[in-house]
Known about the structure:
This protein is mainly alpha-helical. The chain is built from seven helices and four strands, in the order H-H-H-H-H-H-H-E-E-E-E.
Amino acid sequence: MFSKVLCRLVPRTLSCIQRRTTPSLALPSRKLSIQASDLGVHNERAIGPVDVLSSEEQMLKDTVAKVAAEKVLPLVSKMDSESEMDPSVIQAMFDNGLMGVEIEAEYGGTDSSFFASILVIEELAKVDPSVSVMCDVHNTLINNIFRKYASQELKEKYLPQLATNMLGSFCLSEVESGSDAFAMKTAAVQKGDSFILNGTKMWISNSAEAGVFIVFANANPAAVS
Ligand SMILES: Cc1cc2nc3c(=O)[nH]c(=O)nc-3n(C[C@H](O)[C@H](O)[C@H](O)COP(=O)(O)OP(=O)(O)OC[C@H]3O[C@@H](n4cnc5c(N)ncnc54)[C@H](O)[C@@H]3O)c2cc1C
């Protein structure tokens, strides 16, 4: 099943990955005295043992488990055999507020914490790892790049859509460089007010369904040679 799951994530590129099982993840309990704000983390819970949830967190976990059981589970086999994400699953993620977990309320998001994102991603992964990665890339990469680094104009344009109906795609990896951003070959050449991108990306989740793409390219190749 794992190979089919990966094919659905990146349908055109991963056709020959061997079937294998995913190792279970055992996280140790942590007791830290620092607060998330010390680390510059937005609207975060105090960092405590990861296996002790507040009542709100437990409620979120239960809600996501219910959504996953009702909206995702019935479609897992079909999506795997077709190597495609069902549009109703993406819609269900948006309808239940699972795609704007950390996006501020003023932009229509859930205005919750990074830890809440992890709870959502973990619960979804129990039912379908592909749906979980779709949600993970969207929340922790795309949304957070817009939240932290976009201009006010771009935030106002994209965050309300990212919270409610537009899937995002994060385009870094390339066939020769993998995730090593310093070795990527895609170039960005400025022409007037625009940049012309020239290159090829690989293993890009959400690429078939996304409405916005963050594409990594090098505008100054001499700086890394
Ligand atoms: C399910 C799935 C979904 C994916 N979705 C996306 C996506 O949405 N967007 C995307 O861009 N890619 C995506 N990828 C691709 C992924 O991020 C990797 O690029 C790809 O798996 C291959 O990268 P790699 O061979 O460099 O291996 P990696 O596992 O990325 O790297 C190999 C090792 O090198 C280390 N390393 C990497 N760069 C450096 C460096 N500069 N200095 C020192 N050490 C370094 C890493 O820490 C790692 O230990 C996805 C992959 C999978 C399996």
